[in-house]
Amino acid sequence: MSKYIIRAKIEVDGEVEKSDIIGAIFGYTEGIFGEEFDLRDLQDKGRIGRISVDVKTQGGKTIGEILIPSNLDRIETALLAAMIENVEKVGPYSARIQVVDIVDIRAERIKKIMERATEIAKKFFVEKAPDLKEIINNISESVRIAELVYYGPEKLPAGPDIDKSDTIIVVEGRADVLNMLRYGYRNVIALEGAHGSKVPETIIKLASKKNVILFVDGDRAGELIAKEVIRVADIDLVARAPPGKEVEELTSKEIAKALKNAIPAKQFLESLEKEKKVEIQETVAEAKPQIQQILEAVAEVKPKVEVPKPEVAPPTETMEIPLSIIEEGKKLMGTLEAILIDQNWNIIERVPVRDLIDKIQQIEPGKILGILFDGIVTQRLLDVASSKGIKLLIGVRIGSIAKKPENIIVMTFQDIFGISS
């Protein structure tokens, strides 16, 4: 069951099919925030559901509604909603997508349960049952062991014992504080939106005087928040929710276990670095089967300037690419642009990365020798490029590739230019 549903309206200046709209959503969002936030990957992992499109044609235009179920947290769901508004075209036609609502499924479910509970109470308990409002108030009072307060000039959500306790627990948001209060943790305070903005001065001052446990969600966003807070505040220990879970949804047992397993801030940062190194090693291992294909294709590339092969290749092998292409490739970093190169190593066109797949689909097979672009080489891009006879793809990074076509060389800026993202 999804946590949220994104509702958006769409208008296209032409007649298109549902599949065209879904394809445009995938195309325009692909690679914007890296493979960790790739829509296909999120669907495979069950973090977003099947995209539903309901449209009709009217006056030569296509209008309708898009529904996207989301199991992401609130911040990631909002980011996904903003991403789909990035779609500017569906096929050859201009398009506009506007998010009109994000429905909290859990809240809707609770509302229906409460309405049904009222009906059941009236039907089966009649006069003997206490008032439903009184029942809910009593339950709320028993569950809320401590009362929520707002602390400091920023009015951060917190428990009542922030000043009394020598040790405090810093969480991400208000919902996290409420859940911690529910299980008796009164020395808790929220960053309340520190992700992507400045860490509150109140937190920094408290950290300079008290022992601080930073307790973050078990996702990528939690890691980023922890790194930023550790950078500016004196954090003693870091605790994390189980992978894929948020502090606001943890049980008492899960909270106690996470806090028990808290580690020193320095050790936490070191563990993140180790995880990053493991990812790099896995990427290199995945690249090894491609090296032989690269070497076999060397003869097809016209020699002008020698550039070293990737480190995984034999040190005696080189690949030669024109100096002009090398210089133009270096200029691409940070531009989110791509250059298309013909069979004579001439740059024939520049396009935004977000339009790259649409552009490739429009060209004649065999017209393009290679593409250099400021983005991630994805499976879909590989498949489309291969179908058009493109021999060389050079991007900033290589994403998760299930199957690489045999007729195409895939490399990174680090491999060719000695620069990385």
Spatial strand sequence of the major β-sheet: 2-3-1-5-4
Strand content of the residues, in percent? 15-25%
What's the rounded overall pLDDT mean?
Answer: 83
- Ranges where pLDDT stays below 50 over 5 or more residues in a row are 302-316
Domain count: the total is 3
CATH architecture of the largest domain: 3-Layer(aba) Sandwich
Rounded radius of gyration (Å):
27 Å
Distance between the termini: 37 Å
Please work out how many helical segments DSSP would assign. Answer: 14
Helix content: 25-40%
Q: Could you say which structural class the secondary elements and strand pairing correspond to?
A: alpha/beta
Offer a quick outline of the entry.
The protein is α/β, with parallel strands linked by helices. The protein contains 14 helices and 21 strands.
What structural keywords apply?
Cytidine Deaminase, domain 2, 3 domains, alpha/beta, five-stranded antiparallel β-sheet, EC 2.7.7.101, DnaG_primase, exosome, 24% strand, single chain, 421 residues
Write up this protein:
The chain has 421 residues and is α/β, with parallel strands linked by helices. The chain has 3 domains: 4-106, Alpha-Beta Plaits (2-Layer Sandwich); 147-261, Dna Topoisomerase Vi A Subunit, Chain: A, domain 2 (3-Layer(aba) Sandwich); 286-417, Cytidine Deaminase, domain 2, CATH 3.40.140. Helix content is 39%, strand content 24%. It has a 5-stranded antiparallel beta sheet. Helix 12 runs parallel beside helix 13. Residues 302-316 have low confidence and may be disordered. It is an enzyme of class 2 (transferase). Forms a ternary complex with MCM helicase and DNA. Component of the archaeal exosome complex.
